[in-house]
């Protein structure tokens, strides 16, 4: 299942990589999520050529709504994810299907990846995702441990958990993996069956700050569930800002702790620092928070040519 929004540059290559799978028994659900470019016509052209494609055209509703729609409409017990700017290697489905058939306890199966840049240049990846369920559970309490578009999942298990949650925009997968890990096993194959596109235009690059805030909220919700308390964001359509967290939850200090987690996640991203991250750092300093690593951030800002921002941060480091 693949959602497409203004993906005309790469979507044909993504579709071809699925149609070229050695395991050919599948239905290919593609949602055109209100694209304003040629994505819809590209999708329809391939759908006319291959009956396995079921194209769904809708007004723009966002990735989470599109994924949940495809989960509802899918007819197979296993569903595989795909993003419209990535590439699946030909044996991906065959290897994942065989593993899931042999391991019924696994609900979500990811793969290791290599990378492509915006122009299609190939980069072998030296990093490995943890493979075993225990290692994945441990890693998930710090950060995501599975490449979302590489997964094959058991549809009924994901739907029973409520699918993707609307509040967790840009980290919907991380929130889902945390919830899955509390009832099922997740696993990563060591095989590099997926080519993940790195591009300044991809959603994860554009929304790092929102993603980091959502991830902090997802971790806190998981911690609460695991000690038997209600999920504070269950049923929410959006997440509160960090300065509203304590008032909403009736807590003290949780918002400040989350803010520090977010700062640590975004301190290497110029876009995130310029797009609200520096304001978080300044609020943290005003409240007497630790300065560890902040001078290095100021130095990076200088190297990036962000002189006013570096001076602003340096002034608060001295002032507080």
UniProtKB/TrEMBL annotation:
UniProt KW Nucleus keyword: no
Domain of life: Bacteria
Gene3D superfamilies, sorted: Spore Coat Polysaccharide Biosynthesis Protein SpsA, Chain A
Alphabetized Pfam families for the sequence: Glycos_transf_2
InterPro entries assigned: Glyco_trans_2-like, Glycosyltransf_2, Nucleotide-diphossugar_trans
Domain Glycosyltransferase 2-like: 2-161
UniProt-recorded name of the protein: Glycosyl transferase family 2
Organism: Blastomonas natatoria
